[in-house]
Amino acid sequence: MCGIVGVISRTPVNQLIYDALLLLQHRGQDAAGIVTMQDNKCFMHKARGMVRDVFRTRNMRALPGVVGLGQVRYPTAGNAYNEEEAQPFYVNAPFGIVLVHNGNLTNAHALKKELFDVDRRHINTDSDTEVLLNVLAHELEKSARDLPLTPDAIFKAVSAVHQRIKGSYAVIALIAGHGLLAFRDPFGIRPLCFGRADMPDGPEVVVASESVAIEGTGHQITRDVEPGEAIFVDLEGNMHSRQCAAHPSLHPCMFEFVYLARPDSVMDGISVYQARLSMGESLAKRVISTIPPNEIDVVIPIPESSRPSAMQLAQRLGKPYREGFVKNRYVGRTFIMPGQGVRKKSVRQKLNAIGLEFKGRNVLLVDDSIVRGTTSKEIVQMARDAGANKVYMASAAPPVRFPNVYGIDMPTKSELIAHNRTLEEIRRFIGADALIYQDVEAMKRVVGELNPEVVGFEASCFDGKYITGNVSAEDFDTISAQRQTQGDEDDNAIRSRLVLPNPSSERS
Length: 508
Description:
Layout: E1 2-8, H1 14-23, E2 31-38, E3 41-48, H2 51-54, H3 57-61, E4 67-73, E5 89-91, E6 97-105, H4 108-117, H5 128-143, H6 151-164, E7 167-175, E8 179-184, E9 193-199, E10 202-208, H7 211-215, E11 220-224, E12 229-234, E13 239-243, H8 254-260, E14 266-267, E15 270-271, H9 272-290, E16 298-301, H10 307-317, E17 325-327, H11 340-350, E18 351-353, E19 362-367, H12 374-385, E20 390-395, H13 423-430, E21 434-437, H14 440-448, H15 460-463, H16 473-484, E22 497-499, H17 503-507
Parallel strand pairs: 16-19, 19-20, 20-21
Antiparallel strand pairs: 1-4, 1-10, 2-3, 2-4, 3-22, 5-6, 6-7, 7-8, 8-12, 9-10, 9-11, 12-13, 14-15, 17-18
Helix pairs in contact: 4-5, 5-6, 9-10, 9-14, 11-12
């Protein structure tokens, strides 16, 4: 999962992209990058770390131009600690293309070989984004060979890209001297939307992973990019769009609504906040059928994504909703921290219990999901240490039983607490007095009711159904092998600066 943004304007865009990336920081905390273009020349700065740490004043001054891209990353393919795999990626032919990508290509390994053997293109990293960029570059070269680059030629190239690549992808690319291209996979698994503002100097168009990055930078939401659709915005701000997939259907990732997205975003016509309220309503029915409500004294969320579900659940049970944990906002989200060792170390640094809310009470803890179980185990113990009489645990999402290959950091079965374990075995592992999970079909139903145009959801980590229909055992093995080679970061590792040799930055 990553956060991506692209802008075409008439005024400098470096600060606008920086502000948008801050609004998307929750989508990735491993690395950040910005590229801008001025007079057909690229200016890029990218490095590991949070947005506020990667970009200093000298870096921002070295990013001139009125068009640009940005990305915040956490790794799902490739190496978490290889700084060369931070985005954006650049290729000089044809035209000069810079690209950012959110998602995961399941056939990246096969495509890499095909690119070398057939297309005569060299891939220098393990990143599937570089593979995607080179496939797009090759198809653009074929489509516009000896001809002007028109929107028709661009859309023809995107159609060919859809035919070659498998998996999930939301893409924003800049084509030097021409404009901004954005497209989405035929199932719409990863989110992408766009908006605009009428500025004094002309129209300003922003494309981003979440609506919050558009509204939060003062733009009006236009709509989501449709599954399989491509949009092209020329340098004058004129927009062209076309459906480029043969059989598109809207199946957004359910985990976006469970955990990944900000609650104030709207994705594919569904309010993330309302989706989480609906999950809490559905979960309440499961709780009532498992634990008599009179045995619950208080409902406590595990900050922060579970709060809407916990509030709705408490209201339905008629029980007090209390904040029992204080979150240290300066520690990253444990789910997207590379390396299990880092996760284990960070839980108690991240949360602290308020003893007053636990002592002598039967507490129902509500989390958005339970993935690896190690965090839940520590939190249950924290509640007991704070004096809780009984500790019940409820998950607003169903058991995560299957690997995810579409861009979420859970690719290996061995990391999933619910894989091949019974509910009782999971309960014993985390140490709760009772464990209640959301029902997968109920979750799909209540969230789907918020937008009837949604055909279904990509929920493979819950139900094992891979919506693209082309995930092979070899794909799982390749992704698992990448995951297992990543290891934990040395805490004292030095973060090097990655930047194109911009003349202005060399003088700073």
